[in-house]
Design a protein that fits this description.
The complex is a heterodimer of chains A (about 220) and B (about 90). Chain A is an alpha/beta fold. Helices cover about 25% and strands about 25% of the residues of chain A. The chains are: A alpha/beta (about 220), B alpha+beta (about 90).
Chain lengths: ~220, ~90
C-alpha cells in the first residue's frame, strides 16, 4: 500500500503518523509538502496530520484547506482514495468541504490533552473494520478546537447513515452528540479529533489506535 | 479603496469565547450585560473598482466559514480612508 502524509507549515504529528503507517504497511509514506500540486502516482491512502497548520490563523485548518495540495487531495477523495484526517487534519477536511460541520473552540475554552474513552459506532467502514461495533477504546486527544458542530439535520443524517465513526464516552469538548469522528457519504474519508497514532505501540501505554491502520491495510490491500 | 469585513458567528451557534468575555466583564463589576458575541474584523485594501460580488466571493471562499459564520461587508468612503492616512 502506497501512502502519502501531507505536511503543512506547522504540522507536528506528521512524523508520528508516518511511523505508524510504515510499521503497519511495511512501506514508508511519501511526505508531501503543501505546495505540491499532485500526489505521487499510485497513492492508495492519504493522511492529514495533526498540528497547527499555518499557526491556526483565521480558523483552524482554514489556510491549509486552500493550499495547492488540497485540490489534489479533494480529487483523490472523489475517486475513492481513503483519506484520514487526525485532529488538525479533521479541521482541514471540514474546511475543505470533504466533511460536513465545523470544529469550534472547546466549550470549556481549555486545551484538552488526555486519553479519552471512545465508543466505536460503526465497524463497517474501511477505517474501523478491525473494531467491533459498540466497543470502547482509549485514544489520546490534544486539541483546543475540537468542539464538533453541525446543524441538527446534518447531525441526524450523519447518525442515520452510520457516518458517526467514533463518539466520546464522556464530555470532552462540547461536541454535538459527543461526536469524535465522522465519515463522508461514500465512507472513504474519515476525520477524527483523537490521535490513533499516539496509541500505537506498547510504549504508548495502549495500542487501541493500531487497529485503525491494520483494518485499513486489510481493507485497501 | 478600503473595505471592512465583519465575520460573526451565526445566531444560535454557541460562542464559548463570548461567554468567557461576558463572565470576565461581570467579574469586573459591569452589570446589565445580556449577551456577548465575539467575532472578527478584517480590513482589506483593494484595487479601485473591486466589486461587492468579488469581496463576497473572498468571504465565502476563505474569510468566513459559512457553516457557522455570517459576514458583512462595509466599504469605507474615500473621504474616511484619506482622513485616516495621517
Amino acid at each position: 500500500m502506497s501512502s502519502a502524509v501531507i505536511v503543512f507549515p506547522g504540522s507536528n504529528c506528521d512524523r508520528d503518523l508516518a511511523v505508524a503507517i510504515e510499521q503497519v504497511t511495511g512501506k514508508a509514506p511519501t511526505m508531501v509538502w503543501h505546495r505540491e500540486t499532485e500526489l505521487p502516482a499510485g497513492t492508495d491512502f492519504v493522511a492529514i496530520p495533526g498540528g497547527f497548520s499555518y499557526g491556526d490563523y483565521l480558523r483552524s485548518g482554514a489556510m491549509a484547506a486552500r493550499s495547492p495540495i488540497m485540490r489534489a487531495v479533494v480529487d483523490a477523495a472523489g475517486q475513492g482514495v481513503p483519506v484520514l484526517g487526525v485532529c488538525n487534519g479533521f479541521q482541514v477536511l471540514t474546511e475543505a468541504g470533504l466533511l460536513p460541520g465545523a470544529l469550534m473552540r472547546n466549550a470549556g475554552l481549555h486545551f484538552v490533552c488526555r486519553t479519552v474513552g471512545l465508543k466505536v459506532e460503526n465497524s463497517q467502514s474501511i477505517f474501523t473494520s478491525a473494531y467491533s461495533a459498540g466497543e470502547e477504546i482509549a485514544i489520546p486527544v490534544a486539541h483546543h478546537d475540537g468542539n464538533y458542530q453541525a446543524d441538527p439535520d446534518t447531525l441526524d443524517r450523519l447518525e442515520g447513515e452510520g457516518r458517526v465513526a467514533f463518539r466520546y464516552t464522556g464530555e470532552v469538548n462540547g461536541s454535538a452528540r459527543n461526536i469524535a469522528g465522522i465519515l463522508n457519504d461514500t465512507g472513504n474519508v474519515l476525520g477524527m479529533m483523537p490521535h490513533p497514532e499516539r496509541a500505537f505501540e506498547a510504549a504508548h501505554g495502549n495500542t487501541d489506535g493500531r487497529r485503525l491502520f491494520e483494518g485499513l491495510l486489510e481493507a485497501v490491500a | 479603496m478600503k473595505a471592512r469585513v465583519f465575520v460573526t458567528l451565526k445566531p444560535g451557534v454557541l460562542d464559548p469565547q463570548g461567554k468567557a468575555i461576558h463572565h470576565a466583564l461581570e467579574g469586573l463589576g459591569f452589570n446589565g450585560i445580556e449577551e456577548v458575541r465575539a467575532g472578527k474584523l478584517i480590513e482589506l485594501e483593494l484595487a479601485d473598482g473591486t466589486s461587492d460580488d468579488e469581496i463576497a466571493d473572498m468571504c465565502r471562499k476563505l474569510l468566513a466559514n459559512t457553516v457557522i459564520e455570517n459576514f458583512k461587508i462595509e466599504r469605507m468612503a474615500p473621504r474616511e480612508t484619506s482622513g485616516q492616512a495621517a
